[in-house]
């Protein structure tokens, strides 16, 4: 097994620019999914800590050192954070792998993306200064009007474990760029790197309270954010049931939410593709990267009947070639599932599929050479029908289900046959067909001749049960801004709607 000499830092909650022990002093063990061993612990916040953090955030907004900053000043903090992430890249990537089971390659790529995302929102923060006040010309002599873009206020950012620091960054970077004060609640299954973000913020001198980081159990440490009267918005990435709870709690206060939830995304492969292996690799990457724990994973392969048999043969060869190992081992391409709970859940999906009559073409079990750790073989399931659970529900593991089609109409019907609407992919060399599918797919993200490449300049989010609102790009910044109209009466004349008593 690959050994790591990176120590797990022991941290407290990051509140008001300092490390603070949680009021109830509880901690949660950190489990390395590759060894099943406890490798440290994280603080477990409760509603008492949430109250303290919200108060710190409110004070930060009221103080000049954060509340009156220009975008250019905030950009300096964001760039300093990006630089520190890169400085600590190798250590942070190892911590991410130890905590979540991500392969070292994927963790390192995440850290690059984290730094690039902070840099990107630094640019947008600077650009905000010239857009902060936009005059609107009504062509009236008696009125002067303009629109202000202001920070929305205190925002609660609740994030998952599949890309722990990256998903946090997708929310933290734009929230800080906008000038909000934020409370980040990462997943209890993988919080280490998010706590290190606290240390980085402390080191770069981010004003106290601008970002607070509370680790802990969702219902205890995150739910109070959704129902807190002084939290102005929730941005969430995670499961549909939790998203529903957050929206329900927030609705009581008419608090805006952004929800980035699950998916069961299709990848449609046509027989006109030039190169089978290239398409096979995208299908593989689309469902097995990050061990399939990707909200946008293209976990339904919809393949044209005429090439199905040849395609599946190649897919099988490529799948057998995937190195499954401790995520820190060189060339590892598939690490463990994040936790025992998620591991059991994935295996249950596979056994349910079998019981419902599907065929496990490959995988479906623990790899023989790995006796410990939450490892699942990359799994390909055929003989699937559209009423089966495996066709309908998000697995969040390396499990691909396959269906064939004959006509374009059938393909699009199968692709959209889902309650989710996050992403859709098409593989075809017919440009017009790709355009037709781009229009016909019911989702927020379309991939043409690829699956999963994600760029922080582009909007990220879905429709239907995959949620609403967008992370990333300029859309990811807008949602942390309050749009305020200002209307000034500039005439010296009376308004003269009422009859003046002095006449
Ligand atoms: N869209 C995505 O990227 C993700 C989807 N999922 C889906 O969710 C399934 C379950 O994974 P979980 O870790 O249990 O997801 P989850 O949705 O429960 O967890 C995500 C975040 O929500 C928090 N949370 C939990 N209960 C909460 C509550 N009542 N109020 C506010 N926040 C709460 C958690 O602490 C965590 O920070 C996965 O199998 C997968 O299908 C999970 C992670 C990411
Ligand atoms: N590609 C990362 C997006 C996600 O799984 O949330
Ligand atoms: Na962990």
From TrEMBL:
Source species taxonomy: Eukaryota, Viridiplantae, Streptophyta, Embryophyta, Tracheophyta
Gene Ontology BP terms: cellular detoxification of aldehyde
Pfam families the record matches: Aldedh (PF00171)
Protein family (similarity comment): Belongs to the aldehyde dehydrogenase family.
SUPFAM superfamilies: ALDH-like
InterPro entries hit by this protein: Ald_DH/histidinol_DH, Ald_DH_C, Ald_DH_CS_CYS, Ald_DH_CS_GLU, Ald_DH_N, Aldehyde_DH_dom
Residue span(s) of domain Aldehyde dehydrogenase: 19-486
Name of the molecule in the record: Aminoaldehyde dehydrogenase 1
UniProt pathway annotation: Amine and polyamine biosynthesis; betaine biosynthesis via choline pathway; betaine from betaine aldehyde: step 1/1
Native source organism of the sequence: Lycium ruthenicum
């Amino acid at each position: 097994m690959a050994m790591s000499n990176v120590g797990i830092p022991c941290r407290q909650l990051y509140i008001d620019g300092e490390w603070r022990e949680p009021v109830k002093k509880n901690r949660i063990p950190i489990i390395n999914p590759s060894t099943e061993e406890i490798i440290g612990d994280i603080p477990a916040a409760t509603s008492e800590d949430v109250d303290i953090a919200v108060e710190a955030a409110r004070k930060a907004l009221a103080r000049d050192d954060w509340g009156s900053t220009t975008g250019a000043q905030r950009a300096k903090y964001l760039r300093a954070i990006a630089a520190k992430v890169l400085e600590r890249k190798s250590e942070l990537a190892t911590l991410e792998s130890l905590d979540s089971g991500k392969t070292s390659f994927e963790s390192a790529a995440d850290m690059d993306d984290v730094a690039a995302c902070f840099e990107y929102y630094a640019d947008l923060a600077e650009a905000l200064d010239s857009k902060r006040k936009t005059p609107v010309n009504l062509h009236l002599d008696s009125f002067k009007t303009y629109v202000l873009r202001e920070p929305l206020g205190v925002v609660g950012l609740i994030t998952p474990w599949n890309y722990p620091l990256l998903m946090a960054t997708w929310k933290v970077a734009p929230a800080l760029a906008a000038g909000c004060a934020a409370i980040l609640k990462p997943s209890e299954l993988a919080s280490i790197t998010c706590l290190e973000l606290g240390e980085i913020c402390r080191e770069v001198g981010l004003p106290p309270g601008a970002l607070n980081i509370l680790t802990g159990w969702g219902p205890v440490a995150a739910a109070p954010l959704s129902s807190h009267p002084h939290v102005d918005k929730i941005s969430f990435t995670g499961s549909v049931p939790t998203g529903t709870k957050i929206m329900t709690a927030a609705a009581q206060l008419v608090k805006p939410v952004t929800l980035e939830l699950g998916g069961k995304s299709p990848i449609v492969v046509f027989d006109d593709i030039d190169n089978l292996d290239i398409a096979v690799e995208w299908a593989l990457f689309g469902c097995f990267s990050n061990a399939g724990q990707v909200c946008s994973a293209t976990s339904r392969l919809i393949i044209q009947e005429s090439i199905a048999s040849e395609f599946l043969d190649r897919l099988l060869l490529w799948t057998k070639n995937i190195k499954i190992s401790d995520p820190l081992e060189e060339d590892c391409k598939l690490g463990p599932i994040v936790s025992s709970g998620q591991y059991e859940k994935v295996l249950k999906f596979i056994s349910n599929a079998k019981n419902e009559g599907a065929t496990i073409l490959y995988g479906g079990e623990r790899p023989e050479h790995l006796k410990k750790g939450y490892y699942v073989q990359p799994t390909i399931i055929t003989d699937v029908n559209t009423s089966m659970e495996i066709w309908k529900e998000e697995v969040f593991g390396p499990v691909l289900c396959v269906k064939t089609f004959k006509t374009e109409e059938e393909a699009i019907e199968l692709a959209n046959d889902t309650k989710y609407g996050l992403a859709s992919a098409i593989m075809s060399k017919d440009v017009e067909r790709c355009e037709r599918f781009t229009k016909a797919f019911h989702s927020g993200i379309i991939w043409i001749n690829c699956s999963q490449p994600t760029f922080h300049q582009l909007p990220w989010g879905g429709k239907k049960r995959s949620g609403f609102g967008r992370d990333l790009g300029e859309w990811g910044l807008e949602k942390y801004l309050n749009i305020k109209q200002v209307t000034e009466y500039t005439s010296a004349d009376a308004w003269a709607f009422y009859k003046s008593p002095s006449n």
